[in-house]
Amino acid sequence: MYIPTLADVVAAHTRIRPHIHRTPVLTSSFINSLVGAELFFKCENFQKAGAFKARGASNAVFGLSDEQAARGVATHSSGNHGTCLSYAAGRRGIPCTVVMPRTAPQAKKDAVRGYGGRVVQCEPSTSSREAVFAEVVAESGAEFVHPYNDPRVIAGQATCSMELIEQVDGLDAVVAPIGGGGMVSGTCLTLSNLAPNVRIYAAEPEQADDACRSFRAGYIIADDAPNTVADGLKVPLKELTWHFVRNHVTDILTASEEDIVDAMKLIWKRMKIVMEPSSAVPLATIIKNREVFAGQRIGIIITGGNVDLDTLPWQ
């Protein structure tokens, strides 16, 4: 198992710079007063293709040799990674196939197709997703770009927190959502090398808390088909992301479905930015655990904005 290094992150940032946005950091005095801390929101909902995963996908696609790229790329994804891989593949002019749960938001399926990707549907479980994907790869010979258990992807995601610590001085902690752990692993990779005093917290839905239970138990616990409004956080940890989580994460905090929807609505109302339920989980956990963060400077990664406007969770 190859574990990416800081050198990989630096190389990734140079490689992907023409294909991504350096996203802004926004603040809200109202939310700061509510939680009793200074919060700095790194807005990856404004990223290319609407999510942080454009970073990892672009690093993987543009790091391929011409021979590898000619066969195209493929992945399985609940939405954002598939969308971002289609975006990156389109920029390079190569084919992309994405295996997606039939229950994935229509907006995310449409986005994959909009960037030129091909969608193959599966049942909403990890086992079905991986079985259907194996058939796709056997048929096409495409290069597999895993949504998170891939050193190229993690190195790309790590560029987000590299930018964050350049944009905001003196952070005490960074909080990011966790599903499979790609963003959290990238955050661990960057901060452990460049800002080792900054604590790293992962935020997870109570109804999809396998990473939290894994963290407590000391080994990977994988749920096959959890049910949560935070559709981007339903996948389990894998060996590479588990390496970063168990070695560098301070704690994994959870929030209820009601907490997540309330936090999402709060950000929409007060900050006037569109973001998806998965992105609201960090704020939901901070509100629930104010005493952990009181009086501190906290970075929050808003991971994506690809929400289906026809099925908002408070409708």
From TrEMBL:
It holds the Pfam family PALP. Gene3D superfamilies: 3.40.50.1100. Keywords: Lyase, Pyridoxal phosphate. Residues 16-304 form the Tryptophan synthase beta chain-like PALP domain. The keyword Electron transport does not apply. GO terms for biological process: D-serine biosynthetic process. One of its GO terms (molecular function) is L-serine ammonia-lyase activity. Its cofactor is pyridoxal 5'-phosphate. It comes from the Bacteria. InterPro entries: BHydaspDhtse (IPR054856), TrpB-like_PALP (IPR001926), TrpB-like_PALP_sf (IPR036052). PANTHER family: SERINE / THREONINE RACEMASE FAMILY MEMBER (PTHR43050), SERINE RACEMASE (PTHR43050:SF1). NCBIfam families: BHydaspDhtseBhcB. Belongs to the serine/threonine dehydratase family. This is Threonine/serine dehydratase. It comes from Rhizobium tropici.
